[in-house]
């Protein structure tokens, strides 16, 4: 089962979404699209067991530990990149208190150049794991920078590394690549597809191209409920579909037409 939301929601007296019945298929990516304010983040927060601004009537079931990457990176301003990535472990008391990742200064590493993004699995030791993920998201030379010294896209990549660091079976991603340039976005999609292979992922996105690359299932949420959108064939294991494959471009265009309707 993994996670399930059945019910409807209101904000104050106004209906937010009509009754929905969403069950996340295990070990697969479900992409959720829909107009701004329709309740996508609300669904993620319901599954995560967090407060929402909505009144929900129905049931939410989840039988696995979850990691949520919210829209706002939510970085702790006085912790550097490494400190933010390892925040969960620090709070649980499972990280070594003082480790210093050995990365040289200089130009920001290109995510595609590092060994971390070429296919090696993240190590299990917290310090090594954090360093590996920070390299994988292309921030190896900024591991000691505070959030105030990072761009919006860099902050978003820190939040992604923090979410991947948690290594949970169920992962909720709320527009995780929205602040990234097109090239980095494609790289982070590839990285996430690889590192989250075998996990159950619910991805909220406004980008039809992203849904066409990553979705094993694509859902549109509107005020009148959820509707299913066809996916462009099976997705390669542990990978995103090629961004320029004709079937992906066709799916992207069809999805865009559906969103415009
Ligand atoms: N804390 C809150 N208090 C009151 N209303 C809220 C709160 N959080 C969200 N809402 C309202 O709930 C509705 C759904 O918000 P939600 O963030 O789930 O939408 P969304 O589909 O994720 O939007 P977007 O695509 O813009 O992120 C919106 O109309 C919003 O104004």
From TrEMBL:
Regions annotated as coiled coil: none
UniProt xrefs under PANTHER family: ALIPHATIC SULFONATES IMPORT ATP-BINDING PROTEIN SSUB 2 (PTHR42788:SF19), TAURINE IMPORT ATP-BINDING PROTEIN-RELATED (PTHR42788)
Name the record gives this protein: Putative hydroxymethylpyrimidine transport system ATP-binding protein
UniProt keyword list: ATP-binding, Nucleotide-binding, Transport
UniProt region (Disordered), positions on chain: 98-126
UniProt-recorded Gene Ontology molecular function terms: ATP binding; ATP hydrolysis activity
Domain ABC transporter, first and last residues per copy: 1-248
UniProt keyword annotation of ATP-binding present: yes
Organism, scientific name: Paracoccus aminovorans
Domain of life of the organism encoding this protein: Bacteria
């Amino acid at each position: 089962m993994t996670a399930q939301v059945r019910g409807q929601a209101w904000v104050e007296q106004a209906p937010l979404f009509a009754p929905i019945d969403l069950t996340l298929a295990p070990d697969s990516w479900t992409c959720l699209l829909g107009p701004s304010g329709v309740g996508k983040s609300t669904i993620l927060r319901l599954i995560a067991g967090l407060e929402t601004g909505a009144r929900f009537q129905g049931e939410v079931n989840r039988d696995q530990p979850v990691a949520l990457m919210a829209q706002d990176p939510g970085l702790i301003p006085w912790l550097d990149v490494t400190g933010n990535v390892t925040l969960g472990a620090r709070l649980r008391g499972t990280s070594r208190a003082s480790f210093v990742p050995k990365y040289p200064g200089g130009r920001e590493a290109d995510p595609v150049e590092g060994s971390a993004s070429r296919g090696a699995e993240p190590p299990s030791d917290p310090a090594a794991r954090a360093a590996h993920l920070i390299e994988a998201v292309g921030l190896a030379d900024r591991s000691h920078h505070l959030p105030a010294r990072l761009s919006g896209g860099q902050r978003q990549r820190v939040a992604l590394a923090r979410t991947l660091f948690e290594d949970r079976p169920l992962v909720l991603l709320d527009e995780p690549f929205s602040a990234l340039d097109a090239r980095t976005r494609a790289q982070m999609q590839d990285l996430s597809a690889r590192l989250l292979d075998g996990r159950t992922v619910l991805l909220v996105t406004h980008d039809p191209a992203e849904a066409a690359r990553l979705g094993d299932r694509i859902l549109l949420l509107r005020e009148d409920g959820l509707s299913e959108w066809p996916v462009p064939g099976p997705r390669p294991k542990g990978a995103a579909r090629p961004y320029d494959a004709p079937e992906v471009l066709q799916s992207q265009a069809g999805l865009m037409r559906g969103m415009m309707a």
